[in-house]
Amino acid sequence: MGLDEALALVCLVAELDRRRFDAFGRRFLARVAAERRLTVGELDVAVTALRALPSARAAAALRALL
């Protein structure tokens, strides 16, 4: 599964199953950190956007980091 698909799944879980969202969010963030060369500031944006899901603006911010 690519990062785009993983993000779509995280967004879906954020909307439908908040109990499982934390685990999905952590896994997604770990993948982004491992697969993209993001700065600490960009990782901070990713964490902030994850906390704001299921907001469409938060999803767009995450998409922009990919």
Task: Write the topology of this structure.
Blueprint: H1 3-16, H2 18-35, H3 40-52, H4 56-65
Helix pairs in contact: 1-2, 3-4
Describe, in plain words, how this protein is organized in 3D.
83% of the residues lie in helices and 0% in strands. The chain is mainly alpha-helical. The protein has one domain. Helix 3 packs antiparallel against helix 4 (56-65). The longest helix has 18 residues, at 18-35. The mean pLDDT is 96.
Features of the shown structure:
mainly alpha, 4 helices, 66 residues, 0% strand
Quick structural summary:
With 66 residues, the chain is mainly α.
Distance between the termini: 14 Å
Low-confidence stretches: none
Cα gyration radius (Å): 11 Å
- Helix/strand-derived category reads mainly alpha
- H/E topology pattern: HHHH
Continuous helix count: 4
Globular, elongated, flat, extended or rod-shaped: what is the shape?
A: globular
Helix content: over 70%
**Average residue-wise pLDDT:** 96
